[in-house]
Design brief:
This protein has 333 residues and is α/β, with parallel strands linked by helices. Helix content is 46%, strand content 14%. It contains 14 helices and eleven strands. It starts with 5 loop residues before the first strand and ends in a 6-residue tail after the last helix. It binds flavin mononucleotide.
């Protein structure tokens, strides 16, 4: 199966494979590290439109896209059309190629102020936000949503049609309701239904952690692109395997456990170089835990990592694990 590039307005996304926005994860370092595996587009962590009014150093760092990977989409959340429009103009000025609107986040700290997935309780408000953002920028605007607030309020087709009508250029659907958080599984039947209902591109998202299954989901739902989140963490080779399949090649085999850990060290060192040790070490704990998945003794190693607060020591433990793996026969995961 050869997959055509995704067009988001004038922007070509090739391959049609997108890294999901993940707060606390998809910072600039992580995106730059994972992009070469074969991503056509990356999305920032979500940024509060309200927080942009104050322009803290951390927020400005999140939206500064100058000199970084291209194309890149900056995601905004908020419930007020005017604030969202102003924020969109700022992120565009700071180098975003695409502005993405978040109607999907189920976290209480976001929904209690009516942001993220809570917007889906009021499709008219969603429309007003989207219209204001589209009018505020000269680049494509996209939107990422869940199915609705709850099982009884599945508004995704309605909100996506409103998006299309006001000039949003593509819609991503994570096929769970907000109430579900991450429970159960993403229902790709709904993604297929949305694809049937829209003329603008639809991007399918949810539970893709195997290359062949991802391709089957893409084919069966008819979506224009797929978005990968948790499945890539500790396993960026999922991206290259899907890219291979999209370009009509047999996927490269997964790397050995030792090679996976060698890449983990590269990831660790890059984070320390770019963020400094004090910020990198706590952030890397979750990544290291994921790179260790399936390795004998991973639980003990993860626990050890939790107590380490120096990068050199953490990297030493990973190097020691590589030596152990290479001096003993492979152990089944
Ligand atoms: C740690 C974490 C942070 C996330 N942060 C965001 C975010 O900032 N914006 C957003 O739209 N979705 C966010 N999501 C949701 C993902 O983008 C994605 O929709 C979801 O994880 C389902 O895809 P997956 O099954 O491939 O992980 C986050 C998910 C995780 C696990």
């Amino acid at each position: 199966m050869s997959v055509p590039p995704l067009k988001i307005g004038p922007i070509e996304v090739s391959p049609s494979l997108i890294l999901a926005p993940m707060s606390g994860v998809t910072n600039r370092t992580m995106r730059a590290l994972y992009k070469p595996f074969g991503l056509g587009l990356t999305v920032t962590e979500f940024v509060s439109a309200n927080a942009l009014k104050y322009g803290s150093k951390r927020t400005m760092e999140m939206i500064d896209q100058h000199g970084l990977e291209k194309p890149v989409s900056t995601q905004l959340w908020g419930d007020d059309p005017l604030t969202m429009a102003r924020a969109a103009a700022v992120v565009r000025e700071c180098g975003a190629d695409i502005v993405d609107i978040n109607f999907g986040c189920p976290a209480p700290k976001v929904t209690k102020t009516n942001g993220g997935s809570a917007c889906l309780r009021d499709p008219e408000r969603c429309e007003a936000i989207m219209r204001a953002v589209v009018d505020a920028v000269d680049c494509p605007v996209t939107m990422k949503m869940r199915l609705g607030w709850s099982e009884n309020q599945m508004v995704y087709v309605d909100v996506a049609k409103r998006a299309q009508a006001v000039g949003v250029r593509a819609v991503t659907l994570h096929a769970r309701t907000a109430k579900q958080f991450y429970k159960g599984s993403a229902d790709w039947e709904h993604i297929a239904r949305l694809k049937q209902a829209l003329d603008i591109p639809v991007i399918g998202n949810g539970d893709l952690d195997d290359a062949r299954v991802a391709m089957a989901r893409m084919r069966d739902s008819g979506v224009d692109a797929i978005m990968l989140g948790r499945g890539t963490l500790g396993n960026p080779w999922l991206i290259s395997q899907i890219r291979d399949l999209m370009e009509g090649r047999e996927p490269q085999p997964a790397p050995s456990q030792a090679d996976r850990l060698r890449f983990c060290i590269v990831h660790y060192r890059t984070m320390v170089d770019e963020l400094g040790e004090a910020r990198a070490v706590p952030q890397m704990r979750k990544h290291v835990a994921l790179y260790l998945k399936g390795i004998a003794g991973a639980a003990t190693l993860r626990e050890r990592m939790m107590r380490i607060d120096r990068a050199a020591e953490a990297i030493g433990v990973i190097e020691e694990t590589i030596r152990r793996l290479e001096s003993s026969p492979p152990v089944a995961a």
